[in-house]
Amino acid sequence: MKVVKHSGNFVEFDPSKLKQSLLKSGANQEVVEDILKAIKKEMYDGMPTKQIYKMAFAMLKKASNAHAARYNLRDAIQMLGPAGFFFEKFIARLFEAEGYQAKTNITLQGKCVSHEIDVVIKREEQISMVECKFHGGRDAVSDVKVPMYILSRFNDLKDKKHHIFSGNDTISNCWIVTNNRFTSDATAFGNCSGLNMLSWDYPSHNNIGTKIDKDQLYPVTCLTTLTMAEKDKLLVLDVILAHELKNNSGILEHIGLSPNRIKNVLKEVSVLCKNK
Description:
By secondary structure, this protein is of the alpha/beta class. The protein has 12 helices and 10 strands.
């Protein structure tokens, strides 16, 4: 049976991929099998994958808000747009969890021109610039022109002294991060040029998705007990990660949640980020 992807392309429906994503959410085998059976009953030729996702998400939410939040992770990252400003803050949080110092949205003078840098990170004595390429659509990709352009910016900055963390900082490395994917030419050029590449699924064992799961750094946008308007208010207040809400009922009260809803949100956060 054929299904229609976000791009409009028709592909053969692969239930094993759906099963894998449901199991990855933390749902047990019985819940996953029940969801698969229910979806197969509703399947028709040419069904949009977006509709399949919505059905799976709704059924998963009935079983567990936290599992639905994990299942919703990639869409939750896209909710950090539309401009990508909050995505940059989120990426800074990922690096901070790995022991880096991080600063966002700074302007540095290069040899030729000035540059607005999304994130600058420091660990031990090594300082790196991080350029974030945010895409609002799931099928958009970062092609080879992206690392080519960013390499030229890095080359303009790397031989200069900057006032970032001290008054005598040198940028020695460069990262390119995207919430979607790189083309194969983009990763080939980036690796050949000594750039660090990080995307939703690259590198295979240390990508954005695996980093989030490893350290339970789930964005507040994945929470199913909050409305989008409430999530936006939290982002503006610099609450980027779900675990930042733990034991913080005051900020939830500040954005207008009732005591009962605060209790539900904190319960979801506790289950989602149980080790934080």
